[in-house]
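Bug #77: duplicate submission created two jobs. Keeping one. Sequence:
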Amino acid sequence: MSYCRRWMSASLNLNKDVIILEQNFILFVVNKFQMEEQKIAAIDIGSNAVRLLISVVNEDDGGISFKKLMLLRVPLRLGEDTFSVGKITDKKIRKLIKLMKAFKHLMMVYEVESYRACATAAMREARNAAKVVAVVKEKAELDIEIIDGTEEARTIYESHVEDRLDRNGNYLYVDVGGGSTELSVISRGKLVESASFNIGTIRMLRNKVTGDELERMNDFLQSVKCQYSITEIIGSGGNINKLHKLAKLRKGDVLDIDKLQNIYQDMKQLSVEERMTRFELNPDRADVIIPASEIFLHIADQTNIRQIYVPTFGLVDGLLHTIYNTTQVEKIPL
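Kept job's structure:
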């Protein structure tokens, strides 16, 4: 009998432990599910295109990661207006409003909790930028921040690309956009210098890059070259991603400058239509990929760097980190 009582008592304790384990497991699953359902969104209103990135925040062992749910890119090309007539035209404003309304609805469908929408060079220089921000707020109920070039460079760095690099190395982070190029120096895992230059693909297509601005960038590059032993460029932006793909490289493989030069020479002699056919490029990529190549090649020449690492991170990825790291974010209006 005593054996049976001991067995029954042990069984009851075992059952109790199982119940507690089950309860804890259920709580873990519920908490894990709730964590994974924290969704945030970033909108990058650039000179060439507008992007929406929606991601789920995953927290694990004190670290965070972002699982991409959706990335949408629309080639609105606000820079065509700003760099030609100095403002965003009414036609482009109407398109931007429609696009922001669509983005808002997508964020609501995905049950996004918070977002950040940032505009860069084209909006920075448009003399009617305040009007554009106000009308988007009124019609689409979304808030747009216009960030300066320095903040743009630092936000791009927030993508934490340094986590994927040799902590003892020195790197030049180059983000080529439609209206500007952001340069950042990463030394021993830290951002030590950053600068923004009004040298971008749309601006180059419109012959709107000044000699003074090019000289200013060259001075920065020469200073960087003298102070740091940089061995690699980190390339950011849709054009360098496409060039990396055209080089038929695997993810993580570096793009050799000589290879980039060969691709550039092959494309340069072709018309936009021929590039679209031969390299399977979209119309909005087939024209800007030439000036983008020229910018990367020029920077490599100025610094004597011979290879480019292409991690496929950019401004929208950096924005996600800034959203996560601050409570001062916009909630989705419902």
